[in-house]
Every structure is written in structure tokens, then in C-alpha cells.
Amino acid sequence: QDQFVESGGGVVQPGGSLRLSCAASATMFNQYYIGWYRQVPGNERELVATETTEQRIVYADSAKGRFALTRDNSKNMLYLQMNDLRPEDTAVYYCAVPGTPYRGRGTQVTVSP
User: Fold this and answer.
1) Which H or E run includes 67?
2) Residue 74 gets which letter from DSSP?
3) Among residues 60, 102, 51, 104, which one has the least CA distance to residue 82?
4) Which residue, of 37, 43, 88, 95, is most buried by count of CB atoms within 10 Å of its CB?
5) Are 4 and 95 in contact (CB under 8 A)?
6) Going by DSSP bridges, is the β-strand pair 57-59/67-72 parallel, antiparallel, or unpaired?
7) What is the distance between the alpha carbons of residues 20 and 48, in angstroms, rounded to a whole number?
């Protein structure tokens, strides 16, 4: 059973934007800090952004200034706003709880001219 369900991926041109959504159960949403990860087939998964203690959000260097992680507690939703997308951002993006097996299946993001 998937703990998270992601949506919002698609094909976009370089410089474009996408907003990814991650739906979770109330239990997962209220109990854990959640992060966005991405993975290209054949590569290790990469942390994009994650919630941490004291309501801080940590971003990968590649995401700083372009991506924003937000949470809507009323809807049990986590979002990743991605701006100024680049071809190297192409990957499957998914939600996960850091350090646990809890994750979703992901949504494909393709950045191509």
C-alpha cells in the first residue's frame, strides 16, 4: 500500500514551471516530516527538499532558489513548486519519509525543448 500519492508531473519546456502534489493519510502527514526526492533510472535517488525540525525546509543545492516545498495541513497535502525547470531536472519525483521505507510511486517530470 502506497503511503503517498503524487501527481502533477508532465512534460514542460526549459524555463517552465510545474507544481507537484503529494497526498497522504492524516496519520502519515501529522506524524512525520516528509521530503521530495527524485530518481533517474540507473541512478541513486536524490533528495530535492525536505521538512525538518523547527519547521525548517532543507533544499538540495540544485533546487535552491527555484523550488519551494509547502504543506497544507487542512488537506494533508504536500506540494513542490518548481520554477525555471532545466533538462537535468527530468526524473521521477516522489514523496518519502527520510530514513524509512514510506514512499509513493512518484510522478514523471520531463523537461525538454
Assistant:
1) strand 67-72
2) T
3) 60
4) 95
5) yes
6) unpaired
7) 12
**Tell me, what's the pLDDT at 109?**
98
Residue with the three cell numbers 496519520: 27
**Of 28, 42, 41, 25, whose CA–CA distance to 98 is shortest?**
28
C-alpha cell of 22? 503529494
Rounded to the nearest angstrom, the gap between the alpha carbon of residue 80 and the centroid of all alpha carbons in its chain is: 5
Q: Is residue 76 within 8 Å of 5, Cβ to Cβ?
A: no
Q: Which residue has the cell 533528495?
A: 47
Local confidence pLDDT in tens for the 113 residues of the chain: 678 999 999 999 999 999 999 999 998 888 999 999 999 999 999 999 999 988 899 999 999 999 999 999 999 999 999 999 999 999 999 999 998 999 999 999 999 99
